[in-house]
Structure formats: structure tokens, C-alpha cells
Amino acid sequence: xxxxxxxxxxKVNGCESGSLMxxxxxxxxxxxxxxxxxxxxxxNTCAVTAEAEKKSRQAVxxxxxxNPDAKIYVCGCASERAPAAxxxxxxxxxxxxxxxxxxxxxxLGQEGTFIDDSDREYDDLLPPKCLKSRRFVKIQDGCxxxxxxxxxxxxxxxxxxRSLESAAAEILSADAEEVVITGIDISSxxxxxRGLAALLRAVKDAKCRIRLGSLEVGAVTEELLSAAKEVAxxxxxxxxxxxxxxxxxxxxxxxxxxxxxYEERVRMIREIFPDAAVTTDIIVGFPxxxxxxxxxxxxFAEKIGFSQIHCFPYSRRTGTVAAKWKEVPPEIKSQxxxxxxxxxxxxxxxxxxxxxxKVLELVPEEFSEGYTQGYSENxxxxxxxxxxxxxxxxRAVSAYKDGLLAVRE
Length: 409
Description:
- The protein is α/β, with parallel strands linked by helices.
- It is built from 12 helices and 18 strands.
- The chain has a 6-stranded parallel β-sheet with strand order 2-1-3-4-5-6, sandwiched between helices.
- Helix 6 (164-173) packs across helix 7 (196-202).
- The longest helix has 24 residues, at 330-353.
């Protein structure tokens, strides 16, 4: 029997899909994460934006074309939000939600809708099947922040953390060149009073590179940075969510920091990790965003000097506070998005050019068109001619595509 686990959305979904794949292998299935002919499909869906939810529903039709007789199982945020929209589709035999995904494997062969809204304890999943040299280790689920634009806390529930011992054991035993510590809000990680800094200290002697997933501003403390400095293979890359560079918009978004606080935390990072990549997310066209607010965001992004910006147009999510407010016209959202993307491209190139002629550590991820591709420790996309299978020291020689071209040292 062949099974495909197809993932939409965030890295946490990807990590959970890896766990489902490992469980399927143990059940005797031949497993893939790429869409192709199979007997069973598990669709791990996303609802962070309206577009993501639409793509999740469309995935059912894509699967049906591959095998008109296939059995389709659906889980994730989109099916948590609207289970009936999936259950009514032909070939879908079972629908679960965003929580307790590990139980899905015990439901194979059953039919119907099984939504589990429990968020009191962390769902300790099987270690994910790792198909690449970078491995994602999930340490936390859920979110307590309730940003006014975000539906995820309503779908994944309140924040809950994995035991430090369990998380550290998976990281230390990971058969990968790099481990990315991930979760819905890893900044809130707390196992019996032990936070993210304690976890980093527990894995400081890991043989692989250690990278942190997305952080909230308040998580950047002297304690965390000191712990990160102790980690032998720590990747100097901090993804620090911004969302807007305008104070009035931050307040409306229910983000719990000011621009001044954000800038101060970036300063703290660069004092300890001078060459660190600081990346971020920014939403354009939030309901209360004026042209002045947007200009303020552009100026602040330039001042910080992000190495990468993930740019998103605001997507209305029914059930959130912001959904009640008047939306910015689509054409204005589009204009602002293009301006932000242009700035993001300029800042990325400026950051990358600083490393031309310098040695970087490349973790290979894929080989395509004669080049090995992967990321450096400071999250620069690197291309090297020829096939590489393990972490390699390379020297950057020029700008290339969306990163740098390098040669082996």
C-alpha cells in the first residue's frame, strides 16, 4: 500500500506531517511527501490566509485526479475551521482538525468527522521521518497571543509545551546536518518553569547546527542570547516577527511591543552576534493602515536592515477582531506589497553582498541543474556547482539567483 502525506502551510505542519509519515512507515506503508499515484492520501491543511484555505480545499481535487479511487484523510487548520467543507467532497472518508494529529493514524479505515478540541496537554508525536538534511523539531503548540488578525489560536488552542527532556533527546539524536527548533509560538515555551534558554543549554553540545524558529520580541533576552552563545553549532539567525513598523497599527494588531522595544532587541542581538541575520514578517494593508503608516513601516524596515522580509497582504479571517473593521482596497494592498517586496529585495542583496569573499557553512538541501543548494548558518541561500551530501565550508564569490554562488574551500 502506498500513502502520500501532502502538506500545506507552515513548518509546524511540515514537522507534524513528518511524524505521520513515520507512523505510516511503521504500519507498513510505502510513503512519500510528494503528490503522485497512491492508495491513501493525508492532506495536512492550512488556514492562515483565505488563499491557503482555498488551496487546501483544491488539494482534494488534485488528489482525486491522481487516483479516482483513493481514500482521502484530511487534517489541519483548514479542516478544523470548516470540517463540513471537506467531508462533503467525494473520496474524503475522514476529517480531523489541527490538534492531536497523532491520533489520525489510529483512525485509518474509519469514516466520519473527528474533531478534538483538547489543548490541555502537549501532543507528543513520533519523531518525524526526515527526508532532507535539515530537520524540524517541534517543541510547542498553540498560541495565547490572540493578535487581532490571526485565526490560529482559535484553531490550534492555547500554548502548551513539550517536555524539555523529550525535545532535547530528539534534537541530540537527530540524524541531520541542521535542526530547526519550531512550534506555533516557541517564545512561550515553558516546561515546568524551564524556557527556551534552558532547552538551548540542554543541547549545547549537539553535533548538528541548531537554528531557532520564529521568535516574538519579548523572547529576546540576555538569558536567551547567552544560552545561544553557548551552543557550539548555533546558527546566528533570528526571525523576529514585526508585522508593522507603525505604532498605531501595532496597537490595533494587539502586538505587545513598541518600535523602540523592537529596535532595542535587535541591538542586543547584534551586540552578541554581530553578523546575525535578522529576518521578519510584515503584513501590508491591515484594516487601519494609512499611507503614512505604511511609509513608517518602510522607513523602519530600512533602519533595522533586515536580511529577509516575508511580505504578506492582509487576509481577512472571519472570527478575528480585525475582521469587523473596514478593509483597505485590494489595489492599495497590491501597491504597498510591491513597494515592500522591492525594499525587501534591496535589503537582502545588501546583506548578502557583505559575505562575498567570505567563508560560509553550507548545509545541502537539494541538487538541481548541476548545483547543490542550501542555506548558510546566517540563512543565505547558497549555490555550489556539483553534488554535495554533507555540511561543507564554501567561499562566496558572487550574487546568484536568490542568494550567493560559492566554491568549495
